[in-house]
Amino acid sequence: MLNNKSSIKIATYNVNGVNGRLPVLLRWLEETQPDVVCLQELKAPQENFPETAILNAGYNVIWHGQKSWNGVAILARNAEITEICRVLPGDPEDEHSRYIEANVHNVRIGCLYLPNGNPAPGPKFDYKLNWLKRFALHSSDLLKQDLPVILAGDYNVIPTENDVYKPERWVDDALFRPETRDAFHQIMAQGWTDAIRKLYPEETIYTFWDYFRNAYGRDAGLRIDHFLLSPQLQSKLIKAGVDRHVRGWEKTSDHAPVWIELSV
């Protein structure tokens, strides 16, 4: 990890279009200066990622883009990124750019953008559940390697009723259906720690507010952006939070950045 700091700050942020939201992203990076950032939903083909702007902001970066949809990236401030893979194993025909994994500061970091799955039931929901099965196999393999691992990103999973405003309205949604939550909890049972819930087990915490019906103003949100920590990192977790004010900026994403701080 870092040699000259007592802690490392890692963030995840579904930017909802990296080029359209670039001023928001750069403003947030300058304001908070996280050491590592996982970005999702770039909505940019590989050649259109704003690499120069990110480098000028002080970050090295690897990314896997896709035209119009999806896309993931890992940024590291003044640090090397060693890419491990940019595809979730298990389906060679899956062309969605939803996963990228790298070593940064001697930590294995997986950045993911899990499928939404709506409408459910249907083919999109089937794809989501299949993706979760592949992710469960990969997360299990990572634990067997006895590495310090962080799996961060937009999971499109509402784990419990405490993670959504008016849960009764979400019972048929792919983010909250029993199959989705069961798959997520099976992954957690492998030995992962939900960083936010470890520090804030009962608090109402949201990371996403829809653009419609003044959801942000009413605080009618969801918690769907998560950090899962391997056992090696559980005791190093010292802080966590949501930069929810960023959701109130002009031309911003419908997600807010989420972050954790680990002791070195």
UniProtKB/TrEMBL annotation:
Probably binds two magnesium or manganese ions per subunit. The record marks 156 as: Transition state stabilizer. GO terms for molecular function: DNA binding; double-stranded DNA 3'-5' DNA exonuclease activity; endonuclease activity; metal ion binding. The record marks 225 as: Important for catalytic activity. Its cofactor is Mg(2+); Mn(2+). Residues 11-255 form the Endonuclease/exonuclease/phosphatase domain. It comes from the Bacteria. GO terms for biological process: DNA repair. Mg(2+) binds at residues 14, 41, 154, 156, 254-255. Keywords: Hydrolase, Magnesium, Manganese, Metal-binding. InterPro entries: AP_endonuc_1 (IPR004808), AP_endonuclease_F1_BS (IPR020847), Endo/exonu/phosph_ase_sf (IPR036691), Endo/exonuclease/phosphatase (IPR005135), ExoIII-like (IPR037493). The active site is at residues 113, 154, 255. The keyword Manganese applies. The keyword Manganese applies. The record marks 255 as: Interaction with DNA substrate. Transmembrane segments: none annotated. Belongs to the DNA repair enzymes AP/ExoA family. This is Exodeoxyribonuclease III. It comes from Solitalea canadensis (strain ATCC 29591 / DSM 3403 / JCM 21819 / LMG 8368 / NBRC 15130 / NCIMB 12057 / USAM 9D) (Flexibacter canadensis).
